Amino acid sequence: MTPSGDFRAGFAVFVGRPNAGKSTLTNALVGEKVAITSNRPQTTRHTIRGIVHRPDGQLVLVDTPGVHRPRTLLGERLNDLVAETLSEVDVLGLCIPADEKIGPGDRFIAAQLAQSGGRPIVAIVTKSDTVGRQTLAEQLIAVEQLGREVLTAEFEETERRRGIRARKKGKAYDPRPTPPDLGFADVIPVSAVNGFQVESLAQVLISHMSPSPPLYPDGELTDEPELTMIAELVREAALEGVRDELPHSLAAVCEDMIPREDRPEDDPMVDVHVSLYVERPSQKAIVIGKGGARLREIGATARRSIEKLLGTKVYLDLHVKVAKEWQRDPRQLSRLGF
Ligand SMILES: Nc1nc2c(ncn2[C@@H]2O[C@H](COP(=O)(O)OP(=O)(O)OP(=O)(O)O)[C@@H](O)[C@H]2O)c(=O)[nH]1
């Protein structure tokens, strides 16, 4: 790839309520499993970047957790993380599923994005394979309308503040006329499952980047440290098929990753040690399962993904530990990397 004069590069972030399809879309764009998906809400805890290389641009995707109202300390940290991420990117992708009516959660998030300093917001209507043409068309119109509402509200609020500032300084307030085209920069329906418009979305996002040489070398998919990715893979495997409230109480830490010494050069193996933290002994029992059956399943699933990630054979050593109320304890949180 030789970047020409009109090559563009920059950062984009997908924001949306839990389960909106952000991680799946990141994977569809990047083309390899990088972000962690699950059909349980709030599984993405770390900011994971996927890098999309195209002849005319490079898109660095930052995958944030869903914006939600903080209930615990962990929730607050997630929201801080989101606010921090929003201030560092070039374009904001607001994900709204095609198969669910726009709700207060979407409005809350859209309003937050509108307040993030005039960055272009691309509204992405996800999972569009799940609805018919008529429903999709109606959702696109509703999303356009949402864009007009939140950006008009933001414009009026900015004007109101300008007025107050001017009055305080004893200056004349010169109101600006409301721009006629307030709204999202683009509204685009996609499906991460059948690939519908995924490439167009990449182009739209790249079009909002500034001219710049590539930010990362070609071929690099993620700069997330391997240990974090391994921990996420184990956490994902542990969450599979669990229907209770475990997701909020489960954390994984990859303690170390050591190449086995006595292996032939063409058949290496890595020893990986991961601790799974739960809050209560009863949860530990759930994770371990009858006679250790569930833990073995988790181990087997996670090992396969880790082998894919590292490209070598892996011996995975899993330990389940109880760390009481870790969600509410700042010291435990920082130990677990939050
Ligand atoms: N049919 C269909 N399902 C999708 C699509 N994208 C995502 N899903 C499903 O929707 C669910 C949630 O997707 P995720 O990508 O994990 O959602 P997320 O927004 O990252 O969720 P959090 O990590 O909880 O914030 C999963 O079960 C996905 O398989 C899509 O384009 N079509």
UniProtKB/TrEMBL annotation:
Pfam families in UniProt: KH_2 (PF07650), MMR_HSR1 (PF01926)
Keyword tags: Cell membrane, Cytoplasm, GTP-binding, Membrane, Nucleotide-binding, Ribosome biogenesis, RNA-binding, rRNA-binding
CDD domains tied to this protein: Era, KH-II_Era
Gene Ontology CC, one term: cytosol
Region G4: start-end pairs: 126-129
Residue ranges of the region described as G3: 63-66
Domain Era-type G, first and last residues per copy: 8-211
Keyword Transmembrane in annotation: no
GO molecular function annotation: GTP binding; GTPase activity; ribosomal small subunit binding; small ribosomal subunit rRNA binding
List of residues binding GTP: 16-23, 63-67, 126-129
Annotated stretches, region: G2: 42-46
Keyword set includes Plastid: no
Highest taxon of source: Bacteria
Principal location: cytoplasm
Subunit architecture: Monomer.
HAMAP family listed in its UniProt record: GTPase_Era
Listed name of the protein: GTPase Era
This protein's encoding gene: era
